[in-house]
């Protein structure tokens, strides 16, 4: 089923220039755009301290999620779908293993952090972007659908753990969110 869904999403790759351009832009600029949007929350008007706290949670979840991915990659060596003949690659090949997707981890860590806060509308926007980034990673041929699902789980788990451990209003949080 993993290969079938991956093949279905990747199937149109290389056949429609407009769709390819959108997916390539999402895969290249989606995570940097999310990071920029998180950084801009530092200067948000209204609920500034809460927005800053949420931005810190998102940043920590992002880093921890990617760190967990590196540990997983030490033990799981999954071949990329284009190497297995499952997908047609329309970007440069990756040098590392396929599972889990760092793009999915990063984008879902950010989205989950905002969805767990009182900034749910912004979280919904981040979730839509994260989902589009994940689909783009399969579309361009570099990941199986389960790779992005695994990355999303890692990102969400990191956001939950950070959200539970880094509490809003603590002395540390007040010190960090008062910077600038």
UniProtKB/TrEMBL annotation:
Keyword annotations from UniProtKB, A to Z: Membrane, Transmembrane, Transmembrane helix
InterPro entries named in the record: PAP2/HPO, PAP2/HPO_sf
This protein's record includes keyword Amino-acid biosynthesis: no
Residues annotated as domain Phosphatidic acid phosphatase type 2/haloperoxidase: 54-163
Transmembrane parts of this sequence: 21-43, 55-77, 122-142, 148-166
Signal sequence region: none
Keyword flag Transmembrane: yes
The protein's name in its UniProt record: Phosphoesterase
Organism annotation: Mesorhizobium hungaricum
């Amino acid at each position: 089923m993993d290969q079938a869904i991956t093949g279905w999403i990747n199937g149109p790759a290389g056949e429609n220039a407009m769709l390819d351009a959108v997916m390539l832009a999402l895969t290249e600029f989606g995570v940097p755009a999310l990071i920029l949007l998180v950084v801009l929350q530092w200067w948000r008007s209204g609920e500034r301290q809460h927005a800053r706290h949420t931005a810190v949670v998102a940043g920590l979840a992002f880093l921890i999620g990617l760190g967990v991915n590196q540990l997983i990659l030490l033990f799981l060596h999954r071949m990329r779908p284009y190497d297995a003949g499952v997908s047609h690659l329309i970007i440069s090949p990756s040098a590392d293993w396929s599972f889990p997707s760092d793009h999915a981890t990063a984008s879902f860590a950010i989205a989950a952090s905002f969805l767990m806060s009182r900034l749910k509308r912004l979280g919904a926007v981040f979730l839509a972007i994260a989902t589009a980034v994940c689909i783009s990673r399969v579309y361009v041929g570099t990941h199986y659908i389960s790779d992005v699902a695994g990355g999303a789980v890692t990102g969400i788990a990191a956001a939950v753990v950070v959200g539970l451990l880094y509490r809003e209003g603590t002395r540390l949080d007040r010190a960090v969110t008062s910077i600038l």
